[in-house]
Specification:
This protein has 204 residues and is mostly helical. The protein has 2 domains: 103 residues; 64 residues, Winged helix-like DNA-binding domain superfamily/Winged helix DNA-binding domain (Arc Repressor Mutant, subunit A). It is built from 11 helices and no strands. Helix 2 runs antiparallel to helix 3 and helix 3 runs antiparallel to helix 4. The protein starts with a helix and ends in a 13-residue tail after the last helix.
Length: 204
């Protein structure tokens, strides 16, 4: 682990100190102890330094940590939208996809001129999910369940309660006329419901 002088930037160029701080934040994230405040501070430092990409990356992690800690969606909507706008402007496709996936899982609209992933679009043709009556959220749950995620894991990924996941699973089984999650997954595969046209990264 880097020593305190390196992490604080003492005697090092400003960008090197920021890179070290970013590495420290990533190490904390890997251990599950990174806080939204730490990522927010790091983002502000990158913004003050005038480098937009790592600032937007830190804002993504700030929003992710806030949601994981049970924070209100309204508290992160602006953070996600600002980071997404930077990713679009810089043509940073991997970061854009990650931000859109997080916004979709948390059901947060992106207020930067880009439609939030999962928003209905007038295509003239009903989707496979619409034909069987599944909502966008039920489709999220179905895809995760089909991938083998438990209710607890689904709840963590979508930032909802396990009770809500259980309700969604019951409705999915009823709409697909399936007796089990395994049967529902098989039917979903045959119906093309598991195709990921939005290029979402479900978990990172």
């Amino acid at each position: 682990m880097a020593d305190a002088r390196w992490q604080s930037g003492a005697g090092t160029p400003p960008e090197a100190a920021l890179q070290a701080a970013t590495a420290g934040a990533e190490e904390q994230r890997a251990r599950g102890v990174a806080t939204p405040a730490a990522w927010a501070e790091l983002a502000a430092r990158w913004e003050d330094f005038g480098v937009p990409f790592p600032a937007a990356y830190a804002r993504w992690r700030q929003a992710e940590a806030t949601l994981a800690a049970g924070g209100a969606r309204g508290d992160v909507a602006g953070v996600l939208s600002a980071a997404h706008a930077v990713a679009v402007r810089l043509s940073a496709r991997p970061l854009r996809i990650e931000l859109e996936a997080l916004a979709r899982r948390a059901r947060i609209p992106l207020d930067d001129g880009e439609a939030a992933p999962g928003d209905a679009e007038a295509t003239g043709e009903p989707s496979a999910a619409e034909r069987v009556g599944l909502t966008a959220r039920e489709l999220d749950v179905l895809r995760l369940a089909a991938a083998g995620s438990t209710n607890r894991e689904i709840a963590g990924t979508l930032f909802i309660s396990q009770k809500t996941v259980s309700v969604h699973v019951s409705r999915i089984l009823a709409k697909l006329d399936a007796r089990s999650r395994v049967e529902a997954a098989g039917m979903a595969q045959r119906l093309g419901l598991l195709d990921d046209d939005d290029e979402d990264v479900v978990a990172s």
